[in-house]
Amino acid sequence: MTHSSEWKARLHLFEDEHGTTQAHVVLDTGTTAVTGHGTAHRNPADRDDPGIGEELAAGRAMRDLAEKLLNAAERDIEHAGSPRPGAHQVAGWPL
C-alpha cells in the first residue's frame, strides 16, 4: 500500500533593536501543528548582517522542530508496543 502526504512549514523571523533574531517555524501536518523556536544574538562588535542571524536562528528553530518530531515518533513507537530504539535509531533506521 502506498501513502502520500504533504506537510507545510512556515518560518517567521524577527530581529529586535538589540541584534537578537528570533525564529519560529510551524509545521502543519493537516491534523496537528508542531512549532520549533530558535534565537541568534549578535555581538555588538560584529558587523550588522541580518542574514547571518536569520540563518542561525532559522537553523536552530528547525533543529528544535526536528527534535520534537523525533521525540514524538519515539513515543508513538512505544505506544504501538515496540521497544524504545537505541541511540540514533528510530524503528530500525539509524539516524
TrEMBL record:
Region span, Disordered: 30-53, 76-95
Gene3D superfamilies hit by this protein: Rv1738
Pfam families for the chain: Rv2632c-like (PF08962)
Protein name: DUF1876 domain-containing protein
